[in-house]
Amino acid sequence: MGAPPSVTEETVREVLNTILDPCSVNAGAPGGLVDMGLVRSASVDVGPDGLTVHARLCVTEPSCVMGHLFVKEARQRLGALAGVDHLDIAMDPSLGWRESSMAPDLRDRLEVARAESRRRLAAPTRRPG
Length: 129
Hints:
Blueprint: H1 9-16, H2 22-26, E1 39-47, E2 50-57, H3 67-79, E3 84-91, H4 104-122
Parallel strand pairs: 2-3
Antiparallel strand pairs: 1-2
């Protein structure tokens, strides 16, 4: 039996989590694709023609335009991993994302950021003078 693959599902998920969701960044609680719950599946297969990385990504809502950019960035980052011969990275067309899909710590950070934003918006402004 040959050596185990140098790239594992855990490796794939770690790399995908380095891709930040811009909406989470804008909200003040940056989260990667895994923490956001935007990775439907990730796997690695060793076949006769080499190591293939598979991943299915999703977006938070149908109007999100980031899907193709997430796929492009995932292909670049995963394709740069030593030992990866083939990539099968695509969008999952189902629209089942829920806020509960996020990692609990990211949900907590997002709630804190949202509360701070609401507090700033509700604060009275002082006029000079």
